[in-house]
Design brief:
- There is one protein chain.
- Strand 2 and strand 3 form a beta hairpin.
- The protein is globular and about 70 Å long.
- It folds into 3 domains: about 240 residues, Nucleotidyltransferase, domain 5 (2-Layer Sandwich), CATH 3.30.420; about 130 residues, ATPase, nucleotide binding domain (Nucleotidyltransferase, domain 5, 2-Layer Sandwich); about 100 residues, ATPase, nucleotide binding domain (Nucleotidyltransferase, domain 5, 2-Layer Sandwich).
- It has a 7-stranded mixed sheet with strand order 18-19-17-16-22-23-24. A 5-stranded mixed sheet has the order 3-2-1-5-15, sandwiched between helices.
- By secondary structure, it is an alpha+beta fold.
- It is built from 16 helices and 24 strands.
Amino acid sequence: MKRYVVGIDIGTTAVKLLVLDGDHRIVHEAAREHALFTERPGWSEEDADTWWDNACWLTRRMMEQLRARGDGPFEIACVGVSGMVPAIVLVGADDRPLRRAIQQNDARCTEQIDRVKGQLDQDLLFAQTGGFTNQQHILPRLLWVRDWEPDVFARVEHVCGSYDWIVHRLTGRWSLEVNWAAESGMFDIRGRAWIEEQFRRFDLPLRWFPPVRESLDIVGAVTPLAAQRTGLPEGAPVIAGSADHVASALAAGVIDEGDVLIKFGGAGDILFCTDSLKTDERLFFDYHNIAGKYLLNGCMASSGSLVQWFVREFVAQDPPGDIFARLDDGASKIGPGSGGLVVLPYLLGEKTPLFDPDARGVFFGLALHHTQAHVFRAILESVIYGFRHHLDVLAAGGHHPKRIFATNGGAKSRLWLQIAADILGLPLISYRAHPGSSLGVAFLAGKAAGLYTDWSEVRECIPDARTHQPDAAAHAVYDVTYGVYRRLYTALRDEFKIMATTFSR
């Protein structure tokens, strides 16, 4: 009998589903979109019931297509779910969401952040959690609900994340995967326990928070009711799952000390695998899906979104065709350094490693000889300068890359990947197609079910890797322009604050 494992990813724009077999082959992929609600400035919400409806639609279709393959009887050996962290789902006594989920990038609770910063020793908080109070933390957002939606707050019985909610709908059991806890700002990452002082100080019930589970832990089995809704077999085991970016790193093959993933998404993510639990105030921290391993990670506010902005505002869409292929072709004819043009990509401020919301984009060195191709290439280069900045921070902490993997939409561009290899001065491994988190959490389900025995097997799930070697001459040019990039921010930091004050957000 064939055995399959299922990975479901609750993403920002869609629920994605992927099925793996015991031979590491992807036998089914599908996705269904859902809405992001941004009805007020800084708000970011989604409907948790829609996530569940989409997951049910996808699993029913998956089961129909697996039966239609005609390969005989099969078993769903295990199900895993990944998702955005730390999104918040507030659930009442009737097991129904009390309001839309508040997403991890929601920025409504600035007043509550200031209140928490005034009441919590930030140095102690960093020692306990690996981070300082920020808009992603759970506590300020719960305080916002108490301040502005007291009727909702009074009815809360459970607090969980995006993927924990789907795990609950599948199994009827409550759990929190360990990285949701780690990113909550309320969890001691070394003691692996809630910081009860925070709950007491802010009068929050600890009972709201379900047991914290490791990624591979079996939380429960698909219930009869969930089997009716999803088409999944009753009794199929379900694991605690994974934070989406952690599962994506696993799926890329980031499993050994020194492995690095750079993600060319709307934001630019970089994750470094280490065997020791160390934190850095300029970076974020996560547990790896593999026990005893950890991830230091950074997130640049603007990466692919900067490219999209440039194309939308400054590039004519005619003639029809692949506009990015045409832009790549033009930029490939421009030499390293874009003819003396250097861009600071901080159009949304910057997260790591600067943590400067007042930072802004800069086009430095513009001259009349510069063309659209020069500007486009300089934008691509600026994102990689940002990745190199993170590698400098990691190196200062004694963390040196051994292998660099690249994924997500921007990794489809050979030009951008070659620029990355040249600026970083290291070989870069990319994939022609990479499913991301859904593949990572499906592999976790397979590991829990015994389909796979070694973590290195994850690399067999995407065999079409290609390597981009750095060019020494290009790297020498980029050493000069990268230095300009770093000094520009330092020189302009105070000016950014003046402009932010004058033109308030």
